[in-house]
Design a protein that fits this description.
By secondary structure, the protein is of the alpha/beta class. The protein is 42% helix and 9% strand. The longest helix is centred in the N-terminal third of the chain and has 30 residues, at 68-97. The termini are far apart.
Length: 338
């Protein structure tokens, strides 16, 4: 066995160099400051909230009509205590850094108590909305066995569940806490939904990997999104000094009953996808789409060549394929071409 590694005489020099690097650039350290929320506690809060949203599915099992009230009565105070502590820390942090978006004369603890209570009171309404999301997922996926499978296994449902919690906090002006919650869900599912995005009822993300939904996106009811869809910004408006202007509408609006197929990209704050429209796979959209449209692009030309090129040309191979292929009925759909 080799000896244990010992820094030895180099220790003091390395300590000095690391500490000096802290002083050279303050963007990657939080030293000498008082307030900061705990990422670990917020993530545990999300887990507890999911147990509250989906009793019997997440966290404690074997709940009954006799013990469920006791379970909720035990869980809610813990959730409230943690939520208040982290909301309070977020408000103190915003005051310390000057990053708060709203001014208030109320003390931070008073504001935190009010926000915490308002957030907890929103949970029944969030549960009602999520029931519609669960049903939309089941109705939209013929591979689903039942709604239980949706709750237990589907990443899209996990992502939208956390989003609806995070969005409530975002609307209550606790954006840092909301963002930590959203990025935990992003890490778990591969679905990136900014907590500022507004999403209507009965929302379904199918498969989900690679979906990106930007901060100022506005999504209506009964919208279905497939993997790889991006609802993003076309460009970032800047002021006269070249700095990005924040808190403006940068992301698209998607109206009711729209379907966005895999890898579709819709960009721009002025872009509106009208009701009952379908945006095909891999389509790039930067202008508004009228209602009741099907947006596709002309498929690229496919080229085939023989692996035995010395005896058969590509043209001959294609001609042979055309001659031997069985006829296929083609149904034309009305297209709104971008």
């Amino acid at each position: 066995m080799p000896e244990d590694f010992i820094i030895g005489a180099k220790l003091n020099e390395l300590v000095d160099r690391v500490v000096a690097s802290y002083k050279r650039d303050s963007r990657t350290e939080h030293i000498g400051k008082l307030y900061l929320p705990s990422r670990d506690e917020i993530i545990q809060l999300v887990r507890d909230l999911l147990e509250l949203l989906y009793p019997g599915f997440m966290g404690r099992q074997h709940l009954t009509d006799h013990n469920v009230a006791f379970h909720v009565g035990d869980l809610l105070p813990r959730i409230g205590e943690t939520a208040f502590k982290q909301i309070y820390q977020c408000m103190l942090y915003a005051d310390e850094t000057g990053s708060s978006s709203k001014s208030s004369n109320s003390p931070p603890d008073e504001r935190a108590r009010k926000v915490t209570l308002t957030f907890l009171e929103s949970i029944p309404a969030i549960r009602e909305t999520l029931a519609g999301d669960v049903q939309a997922s089941y109705d939209g996926d013929p591979a689903a066995l039942n709604t239980d499978e949706i709750i237990l296994a589907y990443p899209g449902l996990l992502a939208i569940s956390v989003h609806r919690l995070a969005h409530a906090l975002y609307e209550l002006d606790v954006p840092l806490m909301a963002r930590i919650m959203a990025e935990w869900a992003h890490n778990q599912t591969g679905i990136d939904i900014h907590p500022g995005a507004k999403i209507g009822r009965n929302f379904f993300i199918d498969h989900g990997t690679g979906v990106v939904i930007g901060e100022t996106t506005d999504i209506g009811d009964f919208v279905k999104v497939y993997q790889g869809v991006t609802l993003g910004a076309l460009s970032f408006p800047k002021d006269e000094r070249g700095r990005v202007i924040r808190r403006v509408k940068r992301h698209p609006t998607v109206c009711n009953h729209v379907t966005l197929y895999a890898n579709a990209i819709v960009l721009g704050g002025d872009t509106v996808v009208g009701e009952n429209s379908i945006v095909g796979g891999s389509v790039f959209v930067t202008s508004s789409v009228p209602p009741d449209s099907v947006v596709t692009f002309k498929p690229p030309e496919l080229r085939l060549r023989s692996r035995n090129a010395a005896t058969e040309t590509a043209e001959e191979l294609i001609k042979k394929t055309e001659d031997t292929a069985s006829p296929t009925e083609v149904t034309e759909m009305p297209d709104y071409m971008i």
